[in-house]
From TrEMBL:
GO biological process: Notch signaling pathway; regulation of neurogenesis
Pfam hit, one: F5_F8_type_C
SUPFAM superfamilies: EGF/Laminin (SSF57196), Galactose-binding domain-like (SSF49785)
Keywords of the record: Disulfide bond, EGF-like domain, Signal
UniProt lineage: Eukaryota, Metazoa, Chordata, Craniata, Vertebrata
N-terminal signal peptide: 1-26
Native organism: Hippocampus comes
Name the UniProt record assigns to this protein: Milk fat globule EGF and factor V/VIII domain containing a
Residue ranges occupied by any EGF-like domain in the UniProt entry: 25-63, 66-110, 112-148
PROSITE patterns given in the database record: ASX_HYDROXYL, EGF_1, EGF_2, EGF_3, EGF_CA, FA58C_1, FA58C_2, FA58C_3
Superkingdom of origin organism: Eukaryota
GO molecular function, one term: signaling receptor activity
Gene3D superfamilies: Galactose-binding domain-like, Laminin
Domain F5/8 type C, residue spans: 151-307, 318-475
Annotated GO CC locations: plasma membrane
Length: 477
């Protein structure tokens, strides 16, 4: 009679409401075998009938009064309740204490601690309070968990770290009967000499110059400069910037929330420099400068400002929880192939939104409707992140230990074409080792890490029923 015992813990009014709304649950019993004002229902699970007890009663037929101060659990926010010897706490006589999860406080753990209270975000970063954590949204050029680092290295146009072979352009201007070549490799800030900059060909109606940084970098600014040719100042007065990960598809830079391409203000003479900052920063491997308005000719010397992607999240550092537990990842970002409904009841549905590491409660994990290898749970990280690992955890249902003992991981940037995480040695799908019990954390590392917006976990082997709580590890970009 486990079914009835479990149901008896449910608040009567909630269930009554459910009964009215949901015909799935079954019919009322012809003879009410339940005591103390309980509701009797048939056609649910294996049992001939179940009793849904009124507040204050418990047991298979609701003939028992409440089993103790912790049943039902008076603690909020997934806190656990612990029965203690009666003590006084302030003015109140107590028989239990609530053990709060990180980020909550109060006698019943009803208060979400404001993790932003200590102002952890430096340099104008905007703090967002999470469950037991916070996140900082940093203004450019600041980066890092607390916006404490500045992403302002000169990337090497002037210094030479960017080689000639990394710089290309739509066209080149030749002057003095073709003797002077104003090639893209000359477009280096403060370059000296008679021929000391890039100039596009006169006939080129859509000029651009491109730098291939050879790996993904974070760009926070660009410094531009014109030049003089035959005593005449030539420079780019206004320009756009576009960027690419692969050198094939390009995105023109826009400010957050803007529909129009950003036009940056360029130079006003042959020699002085103009700095434009990118806020938000541009993350890309290829960057193109597209002149919009030029004086005399589109002539440019330049420098890029930015940093390596993971200055603040080196190999050991890029393993921050992505926010399953802290709820930085919101419910709307989680989805699954299906969800298991205990007795077909909505409030006992094992939704993907419950698959949060260390979640407590009756239904505290994701579980699909079928136990087969076509089921999956998906996280939409909302933008591309670097993912370095995953922590998984099982759960219990009615005292039965359930977990995923092996799984695969798939990822995507468009939610349409998916790649499986491969085993680097065999090049076949990597089978990750999952859990062995209802509660312990199993951590797996992605070697090498991958970049993705969407991540799917595909259960491959399981114990009892596919049941999963999880956290993704990684960092921005
Ligand atoms: C409650 O009912 C069960 C049968 O449903 C019975 O075995 C048990 O003795 C009853 N307990 C009390 C305290 O009445
Ligand atoms: C170029 O800039 C230098 C330094 O600002 C200035 O002395 C010179 O007159 C300028 N030349 C032209 C052609 O504008
Ligand atoms: C990674 O960065 C952390 C600080 O964020 C630092 O303490 C640690 O030593 C770095 N590790 C490596 C391998 O550079
Ligand atoms: C797995 O279960 C789903 C229902 O969730 C079903 O549509 C599918 O056919 C099943 N696949 C296999 C291989 O049994
Ligand atoms: C489930 O995990 C908890 C905490 O690790 C442990 O105390 C308990 O014995 C486990 N339950 C079962 C049924 O194995």
């Amino acid at each position: 009679m486990t079914a009835s015992r479990k149901a008896s813990e449910v608040n009567l009014t909630a269930i009554t409401l459910l009964l009215c709304l949901s015909p799935v649950i079954g019919d009322y019993c012809e003879v009410n075998n339940c005591h103390n004002g309980a509701t009797c229902v048939t056609g649910v699970g294996e049992e001939p009938f179940i009793c849904i007890c009124a507040d204050g009663f418990a047991g298979d037929t609701c003939n028992l009064t409440e089993t103790g101060p912790c049943s039902p659990n008076p603690c909020k926010n997934d806190a656990s309740c612990q029965v203690i010897a009666p003590t006084r706490r302030g003015d109140v006589f107590n028989e239990y204490i609530c053990n709060c999860r990180a980020g909550f406080e109060g006698a019943h753990c009803q208060t979400n601690v404001n993790d932003c209270a200590n102002r952890p975000c430096k340099n104008g970063g905007v703090c967002r309070d999470l469950d037991g954590d916070y996140s900082c949204q940093c203004p450019s050029p600041y980066v890092g968990k607390q916006c404490h680092l500045r992403c302002i290295s000169l990337l090497g146009m002037e210094g030479g770290a960017i080689a000639e072979s990394q710089i290309s352009a739509s066209s080149v201007h030749y002057s003095i009967l073709g003797l002077q070549r104003w090639g893209p490799e000359l477009a280096r800030l403060n370059n000296q000499g008679i021929v000391n900059a890039w100039t596009s060909a006169t006939h080129d109606k859509n000029p651009w110059i491109e730098i291939n940084m050879q790996k993904k970098m974070r760009l926070t600014g660009i410094i531009t400069q014109g030049a003089s040719r035959m005593g005449t100042a030539e420079y780019i007065k206004a320009f756009k910037v576009s960027s690419s990960f692969d050198g094939k598809t390009y995105t023109t830079y826009r400010m957050d929330g803007q529909r129009r391409d950003k036009v940056l203000v360029g130079n006003t003479d042959n020699d002085s420099t103009k700095t434009n900052l990118f806020d938000p920063p541009i993350v890309a491997q290829y960057i193109r400068i597209i002149p919009v308005v030029c004086r005399k000719a589109c002539t440019l010397r330049m420098e890029l400002v930015g940093c390596e992607l993971n200055v603040y999240s080196n190999t050991t550092g890029c393993s921050e929880p992505m926010g399953m537990k802290s709820r930085l990842i919101s419910d709307g970002q989680l989805s699954a192939s299906s969800s298991f409904r205990t007795w077909g009841i909505d409030s006992f549905t094992w939704l993907p939104q419950f698959a949060r590491l260390d979640k407590q409660g009756k239904t505290n994990a994701w579980s699909p409707s079928q136990n087969n290898r076509s089921e999956w749970i998906q996280v939409d990280l909302e933008k591309t992140k670097r993912l370095t690992g995953i922590v998984t955890q099982g759960a219990k249902d009615f005292g039965v230990v359930q977990f995923v003992s092996a799984f695969k991981v798939a990822y995507s940037n468009d939610e349409e074409s998916w790649s499986m995480v491969k085993d680097i040695n065999t090049d076949s799908d990597k089978l990750f080792q999952g859990n062995i019990d209802n509660n312990s954390h199993m951590k797996n590392v992605f070697e090498p890490p991958f970049y993705a917006r969407y991540v799917r976990v595909v259960p491959w082997e399981w114990h009892e029923r596919i049941t999963l709580r999880m956290e993704l590890l990684g960092c921005d970009d």
